[in-house]
Amino acid sequence: MPLHASITARVDATGHLPLQVSRRIATLLKRYKGHTVTLTLARVRPGRSSNANRRYWSMLAVGASELGYDSVNDLHEAIAMRLLRTADDPVLGTPRRTSTTTLDSSAFVDYADAAMRLLIEYGADLTEWDGRPGVEQ
Fold it and tell me: Which DSSP category does 45 fall into?
């Protein structure tokens, strides 16, 4: 018996799953006769595209050069800490931030736009960056 199962399906406009998905769920549940199970439903969020990721990192490459950063990753960390800061760790008191990898496509576009505005605000001349994706970091 598998420890867990995952099924991804689109719910129709009436709030129902396709019949074959409902049948698959029923088949899986038979494996758990007599056991307590937890069913978790979550909306699938589209992740950022590799194109958006490459565009972001190419912008950072230009920004790092403009602002004197030795590392594009250091600039990424600085921007992410500024824009995605969360409450300090309750035990150690160390600063924390949300990871950019957890952002869905819409949130990542908003984040990248805010990062671009921040770079410009701090004096990065992005005129050499044409907004097209570069080489992914």
Answer: P
What the block records as the tokens of 100 is 């950019």
Beta-carbon contacts of residue 62 (< 8 Å; ≥ 6 apart):
124, 126, 128, 129
Cβ–Cβ < 8 Å for 113, 48 = no
Closest CA to 51 of 115, 102, 98, 109: 109
DSSP calls for 51-95: HHHHHHHHHHHHHHHHHT-S-HHHHHHHHHHHHSEEPPPTTT---
Encode the chain (137 residues) as per-residue pLDDT tens digits.
556 778 888 888 999 889 898 899 898 899 889 999 888 888 877 777 888 899 999 999 999 999 999 999 999 999 999 999 999 999 999 999 999 998 988 899 999 999 999 999 999 999 878 776 654 44
Answer yes or no: are the C-beta atoms of 48 and 105 closer than 8 Å.
yes
Q: Which residues contact 14 (CB under 8 A, 6 or more apart)?
A: none
